[in-house]
Amino acid sequence: MKGIKRKTLIVPIVTWLIILITLFPIFWMFLISIKQRVDIIQFNWSFTPTFKNYVTVFEKYDFIRFILNSLSVVATTTVISIFLGTLAAYGFARFKFKKKENLAFWVLSLRMLPPMAVVIPFFIMGRMLNLLDKQLLLVITYLGFNIPFTIWMMRGFIEDIPESLEESAWIDGCTRWEGFMRIILPSVMPGLAATSIFCFIQSWNEFALAFFLTSFNSRTVPTIVNSFISVLGVLWGEMAAVGVVAILPIIVFTMLVQKHLVKGLTMGAIKG
Question: Is the pLDDT of residue 269 over 50?
Answer without folding.
Answer: no
